[in-house]
C-alpha cells in the first residue's frame, strides 16, 4: 500500500507540472500505483486526469485520450462510488469532449458535495462547464473558491486568469497571469495566456514577447 501511495503522490506532482514530459511521467506513476494496488481508486482517477489533460493541451489526440480518461474515471467509481476526484474527472470529459453539459454539471456538483475542499473540482467546473455556457458570474464564484483553497497552484491561478479572459476582462486576466509567473517564471502556459491577454488589450509587442 505504501508503494502505491508513493507512486500516486509522484503522479500528482508530475500532473501538476503540466508539461508533455511530466504528464507522461504522471501516467507511468499512476500505472505503477494501480499495479501495486489494483483497488486504488484514486490512482485510476489520477490516470483519468493525466489522459484528459494531455488531450486538452493537444499533446494526444482527444479521440484516443478522452475515452481512456472516461474509462478510468468510471472504473474508479466502481471501486469507490463516493470518490470526489473520480466524479470531477468524469465531469471534465463530459464537458470538454462529450459537451454533455447537464451530466457534467451534475457530476461536478457531486464532486463538490463529497469534497468541498477539492480545489480542482471548482477549477474545472468554472472553466470547462460554466464559462462555455456563458455563466460567467457563477464561474467567477467557483474559481474564486478554488483559489481560496489552493492559492499557490499554478494551474488554478492560470484558470482564474482564463475566467477573466473569456469574460472579456483582459487587463484583469493579464494581472492574474503575471501572478502565476511570479510563482514560476518558467511556466509556459502563463506566458502563453499572458501573451493572449496583452494582445487583446493592444499591447502587441509585449504580447509577442510572452508568446515567443
Describe the fold and architecture.
This protein has 212 residues and is mostly helical. It contains 12 helices and no strands. Helix 9 runs antiparallel to helix 10 (170-183). 47% of the residues are buried.
Sum up the structure in keywords.
212 residues; mainly alpha; 0% strand
Q: Which descriptor suits the 3D outline? A: globular
Q: Beta-sheet strand percentage?
A: under 5%
Alpha-beta content class? mainly alpha
So how many helices?
Answer: 12
Number of strands: 0
Summarize the amount of helix as a percent range: over 70%
The biggest beta sheet is recorded as: none
Output the radius of gyration.
17 Å
Low-confidence stretches: none
Distance between the termini: 44 Å
What is the H/E string? HHHHHHHHHHHH
**Mean pLDDT metric:** 97
Write the topology of this structure:
Blueprint lengths: L1 H16 L2 H17 L4 H16 L5 H18 L4 H15 L2 H14 L4 H12 L5 H14 L4 H13 L3 H14 L4 H13 L3 H8 L1
Helix pairs in contact: 1-2, 1-3, 2-3, 3-4, 3-5, 4-5, 5-6, 5-7, 6-7, 7-8, 7-9, 8-9, 9-10, 9-11, 10-11, 11-12
Please outline what is shown here:
The chain is an all-alpha fold and 212 residues long. Helix content is 80%, strand content 0%. It has helices at 2-17, 20-36, 41-56, 62-79, 84-98, 101-114, 119-130, 136-149, 154-166, 170-183, 188-200, 204-211.
Amino acid at each position: 500500500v505504501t508503494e502505491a501511495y508513493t507512486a500516486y503522490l509522484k503522479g500528482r506532482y508530475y500532473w501538476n507540472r503540466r508539461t508533455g514530459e511530466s504528464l507522461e511521467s504522471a501516467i507511468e506513476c499512476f500505472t505503477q500505483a494501480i499495479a501495486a494496488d489494483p483497488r486504488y481508486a484514486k490512482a485510476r482517477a489520477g490516470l483519468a486526469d493525466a489522459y484528459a489533460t494531455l488531450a486538452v493541451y493537444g499533446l494526444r489526440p482527444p479521440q484516443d485520450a478522452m475515452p481512456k480518461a472516461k474509462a478510468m474515471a468510471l472504473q474508479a467509481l466502481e471501486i469507490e462510488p463516493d470518490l470526489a476526484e473520480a466524479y470531477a474527472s468524469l465531469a471534465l470529459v463530459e464537458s470538454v469532449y462529450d459537451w454533455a453539459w447537464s451530466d457534467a454539471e451534475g457530476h461536478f456538483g457531486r464532486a463538490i458535495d463529497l469534497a468541498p475542499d477539492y480545489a480542482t473540482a471548482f477549477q474545472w467546473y468554472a472553466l470547462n462547464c460554466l464559462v462555455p455556457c456563458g455563466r460567467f458570474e457563477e464561474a467567477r464564484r467557483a474559481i474564486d473558491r478554488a483559489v481560496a483553497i489552493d492559492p499557490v497552484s499554478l494551474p488554478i491561478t492560470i484558470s482564474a486568469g482564463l475566467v477573466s479572459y473569456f469574460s472579456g476582462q483582459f487587463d484583469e486576466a493579464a494581472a492574474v497571469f503575471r501572478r502565476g509567473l511570479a510563482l514560476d517564471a518558467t511556466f509556459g502556459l502563463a506566458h502563453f495566456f499572458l501573451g493572449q491577454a496583452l494582445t487583446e488589450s493592444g499591447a502587441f509587442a509585449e504580447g509577442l514577447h510572452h508568446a515567443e
